[in-house]
Design brief:
Keywords: NADP, Oxidoreductase, Porphyrin biosynthesis. With about 450 residues, the chain is an alpha/beta fold. The protein is built from 18 helices and 10 strands. The longest helix is centred in the last third of the chain and has 51 residues.
């Protein structure tokens, strides 16, 4: 049975999600011990462990998963329990399909999660922790996501974290073309951020990379790279700083800003004026008019919270962005959820059919073995025209039609085990479940 333990932006604080986003790459291997397989999806806004357990999932399986995650992450098990929710059986399917489609994201419909779901499966394959059922689950999740993207307006209604962050920043930036922008980071988020900044008219953009990749990124995108020696001063005098690195320690703090401003300016706002359009949140308080905006898109956090104590500085982080996510466009969301539900129903129907397929194949094989023996006997008795053979084959087909149809009906009702038990009882046939056959074939 499939089991999912999830901690996400709806159930857990961001600092806990930060820690979970740094779980070891081989965590799925630890979770798969004693199970058929495991896939781990760890992003900045969610941590999910999908485990294919033997038999029916129970509280002991959940406890084992949480205990393993606790050991590997250093987070107390009771903290994980309080910040997690559990899905089992059919609920796992619709949950992952919703996650992959962006319906469970901070910003509904954002597209980054689809790639993260695919990479989670790729990582599990790399570490040899998938199972046939998990493979089917994640592959069908990607198919559901593509249908949602192609058939609904959810992707257009939902906005990425980068785009939403800059829309919130619009309330502070009077003229993007006059803004001095400092981008800290050179990964995928940085490239998306740069493109979105240019859409808004920003052109005075510099980049700093704590890992030393700034020059290559700057050359590729036609912007200026800042050496480490210039970082503090550039940070102190930027209109807006956007951080999006994978660094585990803050890359910007109050000390860096004060160093860049120098003693004479340490207590004064930076000279770049911004529009007075307060947004409630971290450093975005009514009545304040900060002249420098820092947007932290990092997970773990790239910016120390103490920057908000520097005069004239406002900090916008992922938690604040989540609080200001726009209301979902109901029509697009409803259409997307309908697609997800239909895809989940199809997944269960196909899975149910597959669960009885070995028994159906065993029954048909048994009947046709008997049939061939009787046909051979008829031939020896002189069935020269083949009329007896034809009649016997027709009769076998008629006799098999009802139990085959009934098997699929029972499977659709979740009663496939009854058909399997009947075949075993009446004919003495033992059929391995489809997943076990797949395992044997790949062993």
């Amino acid at each position: 049975m499939l089991l999912c333990v999830t901690a996400n932006h709806k159930t857990a604080p961001f600092d806990l999600l930060e820690r979970l986003s740094r779980t070891p790459d081989d965590l799925a291997g630890s979770l798969s011990e004693g199970s058929r397989g495991a896939v781990v999806l760890a992003t900045c806004n969610r941590f999910e462990a999908y485990v294919d357990v033997d038999g029916a999932a129970d509280e002991h399986d959940v406890e084992r998963i949480l205990s393993t995650v606790s050991e590997r992450s250093g987070i107390p098990a009771d903290t994980l329990t309080a910040s997690s929710s559990v899905h089992s059986g059919p609920r796992v399917v619709e949950h992952l399909f919703s996650v992959a489609s962006g319906l469970e994201s901070v910003v509904s419909g954002e597209g980054e999660i689809a790639g993260q779901v695919r990479r989670a499966l790729t990582s599990a394959r790399k570490h040899g922790t998938t199972s046939p059922e998990l493979e089917r689950l994640f592959q069908r999740a990607s198919e559901a996501q593509r249908k949602v993207k192609n058939d609904t307006a959810l992707g257009r209604a939902g906005r990425s974290l980068v785009r939403l962050a800059l829309e919130l920043a619009d309330s502070r930036i009077a003229d993007w073309s006059a803004a001095r922008v400092l981008l800290v980071g050179t990964g995928a988020y940085a490239a998306v951020t740069l493109a979105t900044l240019r859409e808004r008219g920003a052109h005075d953009i510099s980049v700093h990379s704590p890992s030393g990749r700034g020059a290559a990124f700057a050359a590729k995108h036609g912007i200026r790279a800042l050496p480490k020696a210039e970082y503090a001063r550039a940070a102190a005098h930027a209109t807006i700083i956007i951080t999006c690195t994978s660094a585990e320690q803050p890359v910007l703090d109050a000390a860096i800003l004060r160093q860049g401003r120098g003693p004479a300016l340490a207590a004064l706002p930076t000279p770049d004026a911004a529009v007075d359009c307060p947004v409630p949140g971290h450093g975005f308080s009514a009545g304040a008019t900060p002249s420098q905006l820092i947007v932290d898109l990092g997970m773990p956090r790239n910016v120390s919270p103490d920057v908000a104590e520097v005069p004239g500085v406002a900090l916008l982080d992922l938690e604040t962005i989540r609080l200001h996510a726009p209301l979902e466009e109901l029509q697009a969301t409803d259409a997307a959820r309908s697609i997800v539900r239909a895809a989940a129903a199809t997944f269960h129907e196909v899975g149910a059919r597959e669960s009885v397929t070995p028994a159906v194949v065993a029954l048909r094989g048994h009947i046709f073995d008997l049939l061939e023996a009787e046909i051979e006997r008829a031939r020896r008795r002189g069935d020269d025209g083949g009329q007896v053979e034809q009649a016997m084959r027709h009769l076998a087909g008629v006799l098999l039609h009802t139990p085959t149809s009934r098997a699929h009906e029972l499977a659709a009702q979740g009663r496939g085990s009854e058909f399997i038990a009947a075949v075993e009882t009446l004919y003495g046939l033992t059929a391995a479940p489809a997943a076990e056959q797949d395992d044997a074939a790949t062993a």
